[in-house]
C-alpha cells in the first residue's frame, strides 16, 4: 500500500558530484561498498562515481521531506549521521546502474516498508510527530527492535535471559543489524533475501528475521554466557 507522497528526483549533474562533498563516514562507506561489490563481481571500475551520484541525489531527494529541528543532538543535524547502507545495497542489486537505483528508490519511498528498511527515509521526516523527532530515536528502534524483545521472551527465553545478564539489550544488536542491512553479518544472497522478503511480505518480517538469527545463534550465545 502507498503511504508516503511521491516526491520527484532532481538529478544532480555529473560535474556537481564529487567525492569531496561527502562526509568522512560516507567516503569510508563508499570505499567499503565498492570493494565489496567488486569482490562479488557486481561492480565495474568506475562504480565509485556512480555510488557517490546515488548518495548525493538521495540526500537531496530526502531533504524535500524533512523539517527543521533545533537540537544539539548529532543525530538531529541536517545530514543523516550514518551511512546509507540500504541505498548502497540497492546499488549493488542493480549492478551499479545509478539511474535504475534512483528510480527504484523513488518508487520504493512511497511504501510503508521504506520507513523500516531505508533508515535515512525518516531522518527529520515531516511524516513523524515533532515530539518523536526531538527524542532522536528512529522508529525502527521503538517499533521493530521493541517487538523483537517481546517475541524473544516468548520464543527464546534462554537467549533473552542471557542478554539480560550481559547488560546488553537485544534491541541494541537488532538496530545495528537493521541499520547496516545485515552487512558483515550475513552473506550477500541472504541480504538480498532479507530485503526482498520485507518488501513483498511486509515490514513485520524484519522482526521475524531478527528472531530467526537469534535462534540460529542460540547455542553460541548461551556458550558465551557460561564463559
UniProtKB/TrEMBL annotation:
Coiled coil stretches, renumbered: none
Domain BROMI C-terminal Rab TBC-like: 12-226
InterPro entries (alphabetical): BROMI_C, Rab-GAP_TBC_sf
Protein name in the entry: BROMI protein
Lineage: Eukaryota, Metazoa, Chordata, Craniata, Vertebrata
